[in-house]
């Protein structure tokens, strides 16, 4: 499967490493072709120029048949995935799971385009929505429901029975206590301990977590 990664920043490079780590010869063998971006004029100083194929128009020229979302920021990845699914309906979005991740494959449901990074742990009866990313070393406990386009950053712990609605960002090392609901588009800051529900669109941080000024 010839796969390109959407985005060219650090997160995209980490996802390229996951693609390379998937064992070859298996049912989902990937051939990493390069990075594609929405706007070549917006390439930043930390973005890869090496293996940058071009903008989305180049997908046809390179005979790509699968994509992985390398953009982490939830609203951007929801927007880009919707755009790409509309423009390129034949392209596949495989789930990408690093071999070191621990997942109860019998009971966990992974949506299209989900990425599970190095050392992430997903226990039982968890549902992960399309285009969500579990970054390295995070954990997701029993019966949690992770919406579409969420990003759970390194070392964050999502306790059992938690609901993340669509487009939620959980910052590095944050803790979300059991059976809480984090509303659509909310952000939990790095290092926060969330002890009560978070309304949609609100950014919280601190211990215990409280709304932050912007
Ligand atoms: C919470 C967060 C989204 C806020 O970002 P922002 O909207 O740009 O906010 P600012 O940096 O302007 O900070 C606003 C206020 O919140 C405070 N703040 C920022 N992040 C905080 C955090 N994680 N915990 C507690 N307070 C925080 C700032 O000190 C500032 O306080 P002040 O108004 O008293 O000066 C961001 O700081 C964060 O934690 N992002 C997650 C980063 C992450 O996980 N990175 C991993 C990449 S792999």
Verbal overview:
With 214 residues, this protein is an alpha/beta fold. The protein has two domains: 2-87, Rossmann fold; 95-201, Hexapeptide repeat proteins (UDP N-Acetylglucosamine Acyltransferase, domain 1, 3 Solenoid). Helix content is 14%, strand content 28%. It is built from three helices and 23 strands. The mean pLDDT is 96. Bound molecules: coenzyme A (COA).
Which descriptors apply to this entry?
six-stranded parallel sheet, UDP N-Acetylglucosamine Acyltransferase, domain 1, alpha/beta, 2 domains, binds coenzyme A
Topology (SSEs and partners):
Layout: E1 2-6, H1 10-21, E2 31-37, E3 52-55, H2 58-61, E4 66-69, H3 74-87, E5 96-97, E6 102-103, E7 109-110, E8 115-116, E9 121-122, E10 127-128, E11 133-134, E12 139-140, E13 145-146, E14 151-152, E15 157-158, E16 163-164, E17 169-170, E18 175-176, E19 181-182, E20 187-188, E21 193-194, E22 203-205, E23 210-211
Parallel strand pairs: 1-2, 1-4, 2-3, 5-8, 6-9, 7-10, 8-11, 9-12, 10-13, 11-14, 12-15, 13-16, 14-17, 15-18, 16-19, 17-20, 18-21, 20-22
Antiparallel strand pairs: 22-23
Bound molecules: coenzyme A (COA).
Coenzyme A (COA) binds next to strand 22.
**Helix proportion:** 10-25%
Highest CATH level, the class of the largest domain: Mainly Beta
The largest sheet has its strands arranged as 5-8-11-14-17-20-22-23
- State the total count of DSSP E strands: 23
The class by helix and strand makeup works out as: alpha/beta
Order of helices and strands: EHEEHEHEEEEEEEEEEEEEEEEEEE
Oligomer kind: single chain
Unreliable spans are none
Rg: 17 Å
Strand content: 25-35%
Helix run count? 3
In round numbers, the mean pLDDT is: 96
Report the end-to-end length measured between terminal Cα atoms.
Answer: 43 Å
